[in-house]
Automatic annotation (TrEMBL):
Keyword annotations of the record: Lyase, NADP
A family per Pfam: GDP_Man_Dehyd
EC numbers for this chain: 4.2.1.47
Catalysis: reaction(s): GDP-alpha-D-mannose = GDP-4-dehydro-alpha-D-rhamnose + H2O
Record-given protein name: GDP-mannose 4,6-dehydratase
Species whose genome carries this gene: Fulvivirga kasyanovii
Function: Catalyzes the conversion of GDP-D-mannose to GDP-4-dehydro-6-deoxy-D-mannose.
Length: 358
């Protein structure tokens, strides 16, 4: 039985990867931060009581900013594979807490790789860094592949760039199986509600149930290559099964604007949206509502622009070329964007209660 250690196990990717590896017969260990509130909702369906014999999912307290806790856990677990998914993952917020972002996202990867080296696990433990399309930032070419020059435009992207090159450095200097999965945007019903895709599906669900909701957005013209998190964690696992470590772009090869994502989401509920105004004064209005089961009204203002949601340095267009992953990993996405949006919206509709009528 292989042992895998996952940082960020309570996040979107960590939850899907845990389930995937358990189905593969792995013993899965996860690191979670100590908190006064429980934050394990995404993996509660996988949870096993510590008193159960032969557990396959084991959680440990630890922190990416604490090298001692990281090193001691790796020494104790002796994992065959380490997936570094732990990060301060919100790009906009990284501008507000840049030092913490650098500590977790950049130095966190260094701490794990240094532990592998210090513990003499170079020949046993494989390492996969969950890298990001935010490395490309102010893109130098479209689409972006493994050879495209990087130009990060946020503390998040800069910290992830440090982790990316640290992974390559330890691979070349110490002969560690260390690989990067450069994952473009990937979403799911498990996505955090502060991320734009989930923010959209959640707000539209509330409106559909009659809540007095307005969807506030930033740059409607930002273009992203959106895929499903389930497809992307499968790619990370395939990267770890290769004979030699390497770096791979993981993407769908299709780009969509935030505006188009919004239009598609409303359309699933029979709602046609039209926009008026320009810049921060632009609004989205219900042009037609074709489904009487939902509480939309013609002329209803459902979208407004909030300048606070614009980044200090914007990333305008991300579009990945995953040819290398398709050819070498035999990977390709199984989910289409329309199916992804439908899954997210249906999930949010199920958990959104109508407002109290009393």
């Amino acid at each position: 039985m292989k042992k895998a250690l996952i940082t960020g196990i309570t996040g979107q990717d960590g939850s899907y990867l845990s389930e995937f590896l358990l189905n593969k017969g792995y013993e899965v260990h996860g690191i979670k931060r100590r908190s006064s509130l429980l934050n394990t909702e995404r993996i509660d369906h996988l949870y096993q009581d510590p008193h159960e014999p032969n557990r396959n999912l084991i959680l440990h307290y630890g922190d990416m900013t604490d090298s001692m806790s990281i090193t001691s856990l790796i020494q104790k677990i002796q994992p065959d594979e380490i997936y570094n998914l732990g990060a301060m993952s919100h790009v906009k917020v990284s501008f507000e807490i840049p030092e913490y972002t650098a500590n977790v996202n950049g130095l966190g990867a260094l701490r794990i790789l240094e532990a592998i080296k210090l513990l003499g696990l170079q020949k046993k433990t494989r390492f996969c860094q969950a890298s990001t399309s935010e490395l490309y930032g102010k893109v130098q070419e479209v689409p972006q592949n493994e050879d495209t020059c990087f130009y990060p435009r946020s503390p998040y992207g800069v910290a992830k760039l440090f982790a990316y090159w640290t992974t390559i450095n330890y691979r070349e200097a110490y002969d560690i199986f260390a690989a990067n999965g450069i994952m473009f945007n990937h979403e799911s019903p498990q996505r955090g509600e502060t991320f734009v895709t989930r923010k959209i599906t959640k707000a539209v669900s509330k409106m559909a149930m009659g809540h007095p909701e307005t969807l506030y957005l930033g740059n409607l013209e930002a273009k992203r290559d959106w895929g499903h998190a389930k497809d992307y964690i499968r790619a990370l696992w395939l990267i770890m099964q290769q004979e030699k470590p390497d770096d791979y772009v993981i993407a769908t090869g299709i780009t969509t604007t935030v505006r188009e994502f919004v239009i598609k989401t409303f359309a699933l509920l029979g709602v046609e949206i039209e926009f008026s105004g320009t810049g921060i004064n632009e609004i989205g209005i219900v042009r037609k509502a074709n489904n009487n089961n939902y509480k939309f009204e013609q002329g209803q203002v459902v979208i407004k622009i909030d300048p606070d949601y614009f980044r200090p340095a914007e990333v305008d267009e991300l579009l990945g070329d995953a040819r290398k992953a398709r050819e070498q990993l035999k990977w390709q996405p199984e989910y289409l964007l329309d199916d992804l949006i439908k899954e997210m919206l249906e999930s949010d509709l199920k958990t959104t209660m109508p407002p109290d009528i009393h």
